[in-house]
Specification:
By secondary structure, the protein is α/β, with parallel strands linked by helices. The protein has four domains: about 120 residues, Calcium-transporting ATPase, cytoplasmic transduction domain A, CATH 2.70.150; about 350 residues, Calcium-transporting ATPase, transmembrane domain; about 160 residues, HAD superfamily/HAD-like (Rossmann fold); about 170 residues, Calcium-transporting ATPase, cytoplasmic domain N (3-Layer(aba) Sandwich). About 50% of the residues lie in helices and about 15% in strands. The protein is built from 34 helices and 25 strands. β24, α24 and β25 form a beta-alpha-beta unit. α5 runs parallel beside α27, α9 runs antiparallel to α26 and α26 crosses α29. The longest helix is centred in the first third of the chain and has 34 residues. It is elongated, with a radius of gyration of 35 Å. About 0% of the residues have low confidence.
């Protein structure tokens, strides 16, 4: 190995020996040895303290802090008046605080592990040459000496030295911070490594072109890996749901502390003992805190993400689960998302009238021209590359062409340029050199000076009228839904065109003909689009295809109605000239198809929609889609045809590239947010009967109807399983018939507070307190009489109050399943957690009255069976009155 030179200083043919490799690549034995020597190609930075910090974070939320403060109050109260077991309650509150934090931590841990497992569905893969064959492998299996083959859209997986370059242009922004495109070549340079134009670096991406590089550094030995070792974690901004959750917690905390402190002062000024006031303050705080709410939030999002994965929607970030359900607009690609991305050439048309060619010689010549301007690679799995280019190669082979033989005649490729909307190539045949351009008609038309006439020996000269006729014929074919590509060529003079520029050769072209490609609509798409429209979600199609093709596909998909004219279509050249205000006006008038657009123009569309206060979901698959995916509220990348860059920029990856999967994800997202509101509503209802006894206790000379331990038995006992059940409810069929929720809508809305506290909560409070005093009065208690905490009558009265709340929560639970429906019509056996939760509440309502161990822990006592049956009457009472409210609200 030459030690005097660095890898960038040697000539391409010397690179192989420099890195102990060869043009046909490494063999299996060499790969195995090098993997053992240098390890996997991974730059993952493992944070040893990540989970410790995550666990400690669970103790910093307001609910946990309040529980800990309440525990301290218990210890103070026990010190003031020993023998009342307040220290036991203090330890219980600390235990609850720890278990609450531990549960949230476990759910967060499991959610992240689930996300990591799901990401393994889409491991980064690369194309390499080994044993003389092009094979696809996991990026982590790359070793020094591997021949890496890169093309447009690829993310480079390791540092390599180029030995071949076909107009290769890369973006080194991940390494340098500068997003300026850099052209690369394979020649030796006398520069520092960081400045060399013949090196590709891990983490960077290919803008266009192709190339082959010999890997010289992998994993942490790459330049990117060295930076990764030094990098610090970036704190992400909270999602809207996280923000709203934090806001809700703060509001409930302020309410709890304000009420507790206010009534503490009232008790002090009214002459009650400090011990009584401390106990009361602690009770009112605990009663206001829904201790099990936050863990249920995390669990609901995690379960939702797993449900989405079953529908081919991979959620990379939990916050995107709910965000997808809030979208107002879905901006979607056409190819592969609305269609199958199984391109088949069904029309080979002549240059003059776009009529189907009738002889095999003409077909073969047109396909040969198209193939020379295509960039495909043949591997053990067949052809790979851009789907359009692959369809050209497939058609050429199907019609008897020899790809391997013709590939040797191709001298140069000019990669597809999204701005120019065309690609090109040079090949030799019959002692002639042909320069060929393949692309959109509008991009090639300005360079055409002649047309291929299959009935004449020589091409014919064209004028504007002939070009107009050719365009009209092409548009007629495009209007059937075919994607139509123009093919033009010129015959070059003898010479060396290795360093030729495409722009210098694009003149006096001869139109050879048109290629019509069919990509059938996915059968799931029209129903999915209809479901979007029913849900108040606009669908916008953005494509690089011809406007006529775009309109035909949009009509077949249901994005626009059949018979709609071009008024709803906006082309890229017009879009380029519009200001944001003008674009907003066009969108407001119903433009829903953007044709002949570039990926960069997606950003302009996203910005306009967001300026209209829309929540935007954007699909993308290419390198240039990355900015739009990041700018959108929800970026959705394609899992099959998407580039690594697009997938890393997106929050969500479609495993099947299917538009219908997006809609399924939206439905799940809406269901998840709806379920979060359901169990929030459900949990807050029990706060009413927990708070009111303390208010009555501090204002009137009566016993306390509910103790702190009994409150905790509800909040962290019987309410948890039903809440989890509501969090797993399937999507309501009506959910996709409602418009998207307003962006400003929060979880803790005024209607929800009124419904939870002042309606259902008040009903539970009144019925449970009524039975509490009924038992007391029946047992001989008189107004103003004090009862000890171990008094048999008092224990029976608190027992029936607790039992009543538990049973009434069953009616509350069933009613929360739907906004307007009863909840019984769906059946309580379909959701196993809800059914199990009801069983727990029934059993526990009996146990607190008649099971001695439960009586001992909760300080309760038995009542007559007749009074217990009165507690059961609370179920139809709360369910029935709430159902009447639903019907009144539905009519209103």
């Amino acid at each position: 190995m030459n030690k005097a030179k660095q890898i960038q200083n040697v000539n391409p043919d010397e690179v192989y020996s420099y890195l102990s490799s060869r043009p046909e690549g490494l063999n299996d034995h060499e790969v195995e040895e090098r993997l053992l020597e240098v390890g996997k190609n991974s730059v993952e930075v493992r944070d040893q303290w990540k989970w410790v910090r995550s666990l400690l974070k669970q103790f910093t939320n307001f609910f946990t802090i309040l529980l800990n403060v309440s525990a301290v109050i218990c210890f103070v109260a026990d010190n003031l008046q020993p023998g009342e077991s307040m220290n036991v309650l203090g330890w219980a509150l600390l235990g609850v605080s720890f278990l609450n934090a531990l549960f949230s931590f476990v759910q967060e841990y499991r959610a992240e592990k689930a996300m990591e497992a799901l990401k393994k569905f889409l491991p980064p893969r690369v194309l390499v040459r080994r044993n003389g064959n092009n094979v696809e492998i996991l990026a982590e299996d790359l070793v020094p000496g591997d021949i890496l083959i890169v093309s447009e859209g690829d993310r480079i997986a390791a540092d390599g030295r180029l030995v071949k370059s076909g107009d290769l242009v890369v973006n080194n922004a991940p390494l340098t911070g500068e997003s300026k495109a850099q052209s690369l070549h394979a020649s030796a340079v006398d520069k520092r490594m960081s400045e060399s134009e013949n090196l590709v670096f891990a983490g960077c991406s290919v803008f266009k072109g192709s190339g082959e590089a010999v890997i010289f550094a992998t994993g942490i030995r790459t330049e990117f890996g060295k930076l990764a070792q030094l990098s610090q974690s970036i704190r992400r901004s909270p999602s809207p749901l996280e923000y709203e959750t934090g806001r809700m917690v703060k509001i409930l905390t302020i309410i709890a502390v304000s009420m507790g402190f206010s009534f503490f002062l009232y008790g002090v000024f009214s002459g009650r003992s400090l011990w009584v006031n401390l106990v009361f303050m602690m009770g009112i705080i605990v009663a206001n805190v829904p201790e099990g709410l936050l863990p249920t939030f995390t669990l609901s999002l995690a379960i939702g993400s797993l449900r989405m994965a079953k529908k081919n929607v991979l959620v990379k970030e939990l916050k995107a689960v709910e965000a997808l359900g809030a979208v107002h607009v879905i901006c979607t690609d056409k190819t592969g998302t609305l269609t199958h991305n199984q391109l088949t050439i069904t029309h080979l048309g002549d240059a003059i009238a776009c009529e189907k060619l009738k002889d095999k010689g003409s077909e073969n010549f047109l396909l040969k021209l198209a193939l020379s301007a295509s960039e495909v690679r043949k591997s053990e799995k067949g052809f790979s590359g851009d789907p359009l280019d692959v369809s050209v190669a497939d058609s050429y082979v199907e019609k008897g062409g020899d790809f391997s033989a013709f590939e040797k005649d191709i001298e140069k490729h000019f990669a597809f340029d999204v701005d120019k909307r065309r690609s090109a190539g040079i090949f030799s045949a019959d002692s002639q050199k042909f320069f060929v351009v393949k692309g959109a008609w509008v991009a090639i038309r300005p360079f055409i000076s002649g047309m291929q006439d299959n009935s004449a020996a020589q091409p014919v000269k064209v004028d504007e009228e002939a070009l107009e006729k050719a365009e009209a014929a092409m548009r007629k074919v495009a209007a059937t839904g075919l994607r139509v590509i123009a093919i033009a060529y010129s015959i070059l003079a003898e010479g060396d065109y290795t360093d030729a520029k495409q722009n210098d050769l694009e003149h006096d072209l001869i139109l050879a003909g048109f290629v019509g490609i069919e990509d059938p609509i996915r059968k799931e798409v029209p129903p999915a689009v209809k479901k979007c429209h029913d849900a108040g979600i606009d669908v916008i199609m953005i494509t690089g295809d011809h406007p006529d093709t775009a309109l035909a596909i949009a009509q077949k998909s249901g994005i626009v109605v059949d018979g709609q004219n071009m008024a709803g279509v906006l082309t890229g050249d017009i879009l380029e000239q519009l200001t944001q205000e003008q674009l907003i006006e066009a969108l407001g008038k119903g433009v829903s198809i953007f044709a002949r657009t570039t990926p960069e123009q997606k950003m302009k569309i996203v910005a306009a929609l967001k300026a209209m206060d829309k929540v935007v979901a954007m699909t993308g698959d290419g390198v240039n889609d990355a900015p739009a995916l990041k700018a959108a509220d929800v970026g959705i990348a394609m899992g099959k045809k998407g580039t690594d860059v697009a997938r890393e920029s997106a929050q969500i990856v479609l495993l099947d590239d299917n538009f219908a999967s997006i809609v399924a994800g939206v439905e799940e997202g809406r269901a998840i947010y709806s379920n979060i509101k359901k169990f929030t509503n459900y949990v807050l209802v029990s706060n009413g009967p927990e708070i009111l006894p303390y208010i009555i206790y501090i204002l009137l000379p009566v016993p306390l109807a509910l103790t702190v331990i009994q409150i905790l038995s509800i909040d962290l006992g019987t309410d948890i399983i039903p809440s989890m059940g509501l969090g797993q409810e399937p999507p309501d069929p009506e959910e996709m018939r409602r418009p998207p929720r307003d962006r400003s809508e929060g979880l803790l809305t005024r209607p929800l507070i009124i419904h939870s506290y002042l309606f259902l909560g008040l009903l539970e409070a009144l019925w449970s307190i009524f039975l509490f005093f009924f038992v007391l009065v029946e047992g001989g208690w008189e107004y103003g009489q004090e009862l000890a905490s171990n008094n048999v009558l008092y224990r029976s009265a608190t027992g029936i109050a607790l039992s009543t709340i538990l049973l009434m929560q069953i009616g509350n639970l069933i009613g929360r399943r739907f906004i307007y429906r009863s909840g019984l019509d769906m059946g309580i056996f379909k959701n196993k957690l809800i059914f199990f939760g009801i069983i727990i509440q029934v059993v526990f309502s009996w146990a607190v009255l008649y099971f001695p161990p439960a009586q001992k822990v909760l300080a309760t006592g038995p009542v007559s069976i007749e009074i217990y049956f009165l507690a059961w009457f609370g179920i139809p009472l709360i369910f029935g009155l709430d159902f009447i409210r639903k019907k009144v609200a539905q009519r209103g």
